[in-house]
Amino acid sequence: MITRAIIATVFALSVSTAALAADPARTGETAKGPALTNAQGMTLYTFDKDSDGKSVCNGPCAANWPPFAADADAQASGSYTVVIRDDGSRQWAYQGRPLYTWTKDAKPGDITGDGVLNGAWRIAQP
Asked: Which keywords label this protein (predicted)?
């Protein structure tokens, strides 16, 4: 009886640890080299005006630059952290920099957002 309980506990812990260990972003190739991507392969970007793990891209900005959303139960993992947005939603950040996609990228590998707003938007690179 105790052995089954121990095995069940160890299994549950190993499954939850494996879930926490998975990085939320992937690495894909672009014309400018490797870039972080979402699960669909779309390039992720950082915004130079963000600071201290805080996103300043809200409202119309976030409509054009959708935040890389984190689930309510998402936990930090390695270089990835979760930031709380002004509207209370959660967003993934890489090395403290909130991550976004760009609505004008049409397919995986596109990097049309790199350099927008006088260079303030940049490809997120691993």
From this structure: Signal
Domain count, the chain: 1
Q: Please count the residues of the chain.
A: 126
pTM: 0.83
* Residue 12: per-residue pLDDT: 42
pLDDT for 52 equals: 81
Determine the structural domain holding residue 65 and report its residue range.
25-123
Strands (E), the chain: 26-30, 33-37, 45-47, 80-84, 90-94, 97-98, 121-123
In a domain, 41, yes or no: yes
- Is residue 91 included in any domain, yes or no? yes
- Tell me whether residue 102 is exposed, middle or buried, using C-beta atoms within 10 angstroms of its C-beta: 0 to 12, 13 to 18, 19 or more: buried
Distance CA 43, CA 114 (A): 10
With the C-alpha atoms ordered 90, 115, 48, 44, is the resulting torsion angle positive or negative? positive
- How high is the pLDDT of residue 7? 43
The answer to whether position 46 is within a domain reads yes
Ranges of residues in the chain whose predicted pLDDT is under 50: 3, 5-20
Q: Under a CB-based contact definition with an 8 Å cutoff, are residues 27 and 34 in contact?
A: yes
